[in-house]
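Notebook p. 47: complex prediction with zinc ion.
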Amino acid sequence: MPPELICPDCGSEIEDSTDFGVGRRVHFVTVEGDGGVALDPDRTVTLWHCANCNLVVSVS
Ligand SMILES: [Zn+2]
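Predicted complex, structure tokens below:
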């Protein structure tokens, strides 16, 4: 058994994908030393939200 994912805000157990809110795809960026943001247009990640409180709990 892999470790359980538990929302740090509301304590909900996330057992399968139906426990997630809608994942959004966002671009991967690098924040640079001068405060600038460099976008990598070829790289995106999906944000997964807790279905109960909407906190972002993981990415893939
Ligand atoms: Zn939650």
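Notes: DSSP finds no helices and five strands in the chain. The radius of gyration is 14 Å.
Next step: compare against the earlier run before touching the bench.
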